[in-house]
């Protein structure tokens, strides 16, 4: 069963706050090794996905179901906030967050296209020429 835009906004907002606070609380662990730092960037990309979901669902609730997220400002704002959150952990986490976020954005766009796009029906008129 799918959640409504309002419920999804609340859930993704809660998950965003939990991820951000978890990154700050366990900053010492995320900077303890190189692998943990890359994992911190991955957590930052999850923060990006949840923040973008929260922003999109808020706009869908306020402006209606037909409203779509755009590259600027929704995606850009979510990406900048997640990069800043990852930068508060480690500089390398910022870079890996950017890369993982781009991969996540690609798959979000792909899933959205498969779910919400309407099939294009092409009609062509063939005329028969007689000699």
TrEMBL record:
Its main location: membrane. It comes from the Eukaryota. It is a multi-pass membrane protein. Keywords: Membrane, Transmembrane, Transmembrane helix. Pfam families: Keratin_assoc. It is found in: Membrane. GO terms for cellular component: membrane. The chain crosses the membrane at residues 6-23, 35-55, 75-108. Belongs to the KRTCAP2 family. PANTHER family: KERATINOCYTE-ASSOCIATED PROTEIN 2. This is Protein KRTCAP2 homolog. It comes from Cephus cinctus (Wheat stem sawfly). The gene is LOC107266505.
């Amino acid at each position: 069963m799918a959640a409504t835009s309002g419920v999804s906004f609340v859930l993704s907002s809660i998950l965003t706050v939990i991820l951000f606070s978890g990154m700050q609380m366990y900053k010492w662990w995320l900077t303890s090794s190189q692998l943990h730092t890359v994992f911190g960037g991955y957590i930052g990309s999850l923060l990006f996905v949840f923040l973008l979901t929260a922003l999109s669902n808020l706009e869908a609730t306020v402006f209606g179901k037909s409203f779509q997220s755009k590259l600027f400002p929704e995606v850009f704002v979510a990406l900048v906030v997640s990069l800043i959150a990852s930068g508060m952990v480690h500089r390398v986490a910022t870079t890996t967050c950017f890369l993982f976020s781009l991969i996540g954005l690609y798959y979000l766009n792909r899933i959205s296209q498969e779910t919400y796009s309407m099939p294009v029906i092409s009609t062509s008129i063939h005329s028969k020429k007689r000699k």
